Amino acid sequence: MFLLETTDGQIMEPTTGDLNDPLINHAEGQLFLHEAFKIIVEEVLCKGTDVKEKVCEWKEPEDLALLLDLELREKGEPQESVLQRIRDVAKYSVKTSHPRFFNQQFAGVDYHSLAGRFLSEALNTNLFTYEVAPVFVLMEAEVLKGLRELVGWTKGDGLFCPGGSTSNMYAMNLARYRLYPEVKNQGLWSLPRLTIFTSPESHYSVKKGAAFMGFGMDNVILVKVDDGGRMIPEDLDEKIEISKSQGAVPFLVSCTSGTTVQGAFDPLDHIADVCDKHKLWLHVDAAWGGSVLFSKKHRHLMKGVHRANSVAWNPHKMLVAGLQCSVLLLKDTTDLLKKCHCANASYLFQQDKFYDVNLDIGDKSVQCSRKVDCLKLWLMWKAVGSTGLEQRVDKAFLHVRYLVDQMKKRDGFQLLREPEFVNVCFWFIPPSLRGKGKNADYQNRLAKVAPVIKERMMKQGTMMVGYQPLGDRVNFFRITVLSPLISQKDMDFFLDEIERLGNDL
Questions:
Q1: How far apart (Å, rounded) are the C-alpha atoms in residues 384 and 398?
Q2: Which residues on neighbouring strands pair with residue 480, listed in sequence order?
């Protein structure tokens, strides 16, 4: 609601007694929106992508809460105050579109996609029936069809999900339903112990999903990986046999195309052989790596993906479609998605509608309210074409090759391994630690380097990159290179900045 101000700055309270007038003044609202957009463009899209500006304006939580004045009150504020709130939110938020934001797998901005996000927010519809979302029911079907074709399926099913974690959980639910359809009505009490197989480097949503859906984390069996983080099919086969011998029922293998940390691609063809042998559902979590399917040079990383039963893919990552844009793709043509999840709500899905009720897709989802996430990808795909998306993937690989080559020319940068994808994992070894790898305290001292450098870069606002331990390997940096806004200069700056921030440690 837009409040009126008197000439002396006092707020005029709206009255609700007069039913002849709406509570919201459209002219004032649109003027406010115009001013708000000017701030967004200036603060987020101009300053937020300028390398001369900070990636983040770090504040301690207590100070930030005071600066933002977060308390909600009985009475509203003048519009100029609300516009200042927008400025403050933009100023103190992390600029994920900044060319020096390397922290997560959603960097950069695509302006066509962003226009689609603005448009879908303004239209504010729910993607469950054709009557309220005719454009988007048809659009989602077309986008899913295009993505399935890249996987190698001419037919199938799917839907947009609120994140890759949810896509992975859908796959678990569908695999269980295919094996034991009675679970939908009778619940878990009648089921045997079901086991899931994945690698220790898979996304944590596999374990979370197992807990959430009643399988239990103890029934997620971790399969060994090689030095590059790729699942070993022979160990998978052995662990399935062991699980069967213990009275459990193996039912799903969740492999990964583009692991979160190392960017590893599990060998899908060999894993598919094991799944065929044991008649297990093969799910591919390609949330991060799926976009290589656009590239003729790099799609070989997912060789055999067409043999999967389901694929999770997040175009909001490497394709820069914007959060959130996540899909679950299915090979199934038996309407398994709807059979598994439908509740046949008669107030939404009436069977005597005047149009084809198969266009009412809401019962495929466990959600009722479902955002329109297809528009941002469709508009971007329309604008740049498959060729443009392929160029983004290929360019990211070229940036990584350049970055790795430069690392090898500098002292102090030690790779975990040669990158398979666009994740570059490395230690920075300060001068004080070089040549001391055999010292008893070396690993403990090295583990402290990345956290200190990260703190310094955040407090200075120069860039952002993540770090983590992995197994018995102490803290190391992981830079993910994907933004179409970056250039060779940003790669050089990254290396220079790591050195500047860490040389005195």
A1: 20
A2: 423
